[in-house]
Structures are given as structure tokens and as C-alpha cells.
Specification:
Rossmann fold; 2 domains; membrane; alpha/beta; MFS_trans_sf; transmembrane helix; PABS domain-containing protein; 4-stranded antiparallel beta sheet; SAM-dependent_MTases_sf
């Protein structure tokens, strides 16, 4: 539990749904969360509101800003999230993925005429309308705001209304992927068919704004200097070699905690770009449609659940080195696949 492990963290609400577990918690003195640092003008010296956190499956989450006065969110005047509102006036806004509500609050602060939010997690919608109502100054209960518990793409398809601005901000809640549950609806928000549906519901001269977020995209920064010089196939090969080096260091290198840390860091850095690199390679060979994405996530889910199960079965009898042995076996299979599908092209 990343956030809940912070010193002084206090759980305010915990609840399960068929989607995932939701925890609402507070940390003494916490202000702004990711929105206080992500996309904010470095020269900004004004106030940043206090924040609570909504966390999903004790991993990914979002911040809920405290609203005391109309100027509580003054930081949004110098924030990247303001950009779309410079292009539209009094817009009708659709927010896909409400989370902690920063997009709803931003729309209201920027003068939106109407704001509709579609949120996959019904618990989050209920929290905004009950427990968090006083914290956010009743902003979500304003007459021009509508919160709907619905998967974003399905919601768009079910409505005939047009919007002046469609906003998708950091809905990439890959906590689902980290547990092997790859089939949640977020996986389909970025397909060709989904984009067609969004654009069909965009008014003339409307704006479609996407802000990618979350730890996956932070990890993707690692290969960025190489991506300008190397093809995805070369980057993937470097990833394989890095993982192999980490496993060999763990199995045959010096003993001790320091060596384990080095091996783990090397392996982690090598694994980080793999997901994005494989998708990039696939995109260069075929259209990334909803059907293709679905099969990709099915395969990833099978691997994401099978490999940890194998490690768990062997861990007690063979010890921690099992993790790296299984990793080497996987790398061997991966190198064979690499040779078949990449080198023979």
C-alpha cells in the first residue's frame, strides 16, 4: 500500500466493489498531491490546497483537493490542465475517468457551462456525493455537474449529446495490470474505435484533450534517449539482455544484500520499457484495434498470473533464487520468439 504506508496516513473509508478496492485516506500536511507538482508552472508561488487521496487496490490513485474559497484552486491558472480552456468558451465538458475529481474542479474553475463525469468505480462517485461533499465545498453537487457511474467509452456511445471539450486525464490505472487483471475497461479507451466515438461526440470546433499519466509512463521515460536513435526491436533486445544480466548477477554474483539490490535494480530498469516497446513494435506491423488490444491483454493476463503461480509453487522448496531462475527461463522463451518474429523478418 504505497500511500497508506506514508507516515501518519489515516484511513477514512475502505470498501470493495467488483472493480477493485477503494481506500480514502489522509496524510497530515499533504498538499496538492500529484497535481501540485505535475504540470504546474515551476515559477508558481501561490497556495496549493490540502489533499486527501483515493487509492485503488492499495496502489494507483488520485488526489482530492480541499475547496474552501473560490480561490482554493488558483494554481490551475498556471497549470497544464488549463490549456484546453484557452481554446473554448463556456464549454460543455465531458470528463472520462473522474478519480479524485481534479478535471471536474478544473472545468468549474475555468467557467464550464456544463460538466459531465463518467467514472468506472461507483464507490468513487458515491464518495464525491457523500463523504467528500464538505471537503470539496459542495462543488460536485452544483446543478451544472453530473456524475455517472459508467465505463467511459460505453457512456459516450450511449449518449447522443455533443461536447465542446472531452477530457481524459491519467485514467491509466495500471494497478489492474500489476495484479494480472488486464481486462478492465481502461484498456479500451485508446483504441481506434474509441477515438472514432469520441470525435463523433465532439461539437464543431470542439477540443479533445488527453493527458497520459501514471507510473507506466514515468517508466517509459527510461528508453526515451535511446528511442530517438534505436528501433523498437533493438530496444527490446537491450531489455532482454539487461534482464539476463540482472538474473545472472543474482544467481552467480557476489552474495549479500548489496548484490541483491544491484541485481534487482538492473532487472527492474530493463523490464520497465518492455510493455511500451512491444506495443510500439505491434503498432508498426498492424492497426491497434480493440480486437487486437483485447487479445494482447488476454495473453498478458495469462502470463501475468501463470508465472507468479509457478514462482509461488517453487519458492518454498527452492528459495528466493527461484524468481531469477524462472526469469531466465522466460527470457530464453522470449529470445526464441524474438528470433522467430524479429530476426527472420
Amino acid at each position: 500500500a504505497i500511500g497508506l504506508a506514508r507516515p501518519g496516513a489515516r484511513t477514512l473509508h475502505s470498501e470493495w466493489s467488483p472493480v477493485n478496492r477503494v481506500d480514502l485516506y489522509g496524510v497530515p500536511g499533504a498538499r496538492g498531491g500529484m497535481w501540485g507538482g505535475f504540470g504546474l508552472n515551476p515559477a508558481y508561488e501561490g497556495p496549493v490546497p490540502r489533499a486527501l487521496d483515493i487509492q485503488y487496490d492499495a496502489h494507483n490513485g488520485s488526489n482530492v483537493s480541499q475547496i474552501k474559497t473560490p480561490r482554493s484552486l488558483a494554481m490551475l491558472e498556471q497549470h497544464i490542465l488549463r490549456t484546453p480552456y484557452l481554446l473554448v468558451e463556456d464549454p460543455r465538458v465531458l470528463v472520462i475517468g473522474v478519480g479524485g475529481g481534479i478535471d471536474i474542479l478544473n472545468a468549474l474553475y475555468q467557467g464550464a457551462a456544463r460538466v459531465t463525469g463518467a467514472e468506472l468505480q461507483p464507490i468513487t462517485v458515491r464518495l464525491h456525493n457523500t463523504v467528500l461533499s464538505e471537503w470539496t465545498g459542495g462543488q460536485f453537487q452544483r446543478p451544472e455537474v453530473e456524475l455517472v457511474a459508467a465505463e467511459g467509452r460505453h457512456f459516450v456511445r450511449s449518449r447522443s449529446q455533443e461536447y465542446d471539450l472531452i477530457q481524459i486525464t491519467a485514467v491509466d490505472t495500471f494497478s489492474a495490470q500489476s495484479t494480472g487483471a488486464y481486462l478492465l475497461a481502461e484498456s479500451y479507451l485508446y483504441t481506434i474505435e474509441a477515438f472514432d466515438e469520441y470525435l463523433d461526440h465532439l461539437a464543431e470546433d470542439g477540443v479533445f484533450s488527453i493527458v497520459l499519466g501514471d507510473w507506466l509512463y514515468k517508466d517509459e521515460l527510461l528508453p526515451s534517449p535511446l528511442a530517438a536513435r534505436l528501433a523498437p526491436a533493438s530496444i527490446l533486445l537491450l531489455c532482454y539482455l539487461g534482464c539476463a544480466l540482472g538474473a545472472v548477477l543474482a544467481l552467480a554474483g557476489p552474495q549479500g544484500a548489496g548484490a541483491v539490490w544491484v541485481a534487482t535494480i538492473v532487472s527492474g530498469l530493463a523490464v520497465a520499457p518492455m510493455f511500451a516497446t512491444v506495443l510500439s513494435m505491434a503498432g508498426g506491423r498492424m492497426p491497434i484495434t480493440g480486437r487486437a488490444t483485447g487479445w494482447f491483454f488476454v495473453g498478458s493476463s495469462v502470463g501475468g498470473m501463470t508465472v507468479p503461480w509457478v514462482v509461488g509453487q517453487l519458492f518454498e522448496s527452492a528459495g528466493p533464487t527461484t524468481v531469477f531462475v524462472v526469469a531466465l527461463v522466460n527470457l530464453g522463451v522470449g529470445m526464441v520468439m524474438y528470433g522467430v518474429f524479429v530476426l527472420k523478418r
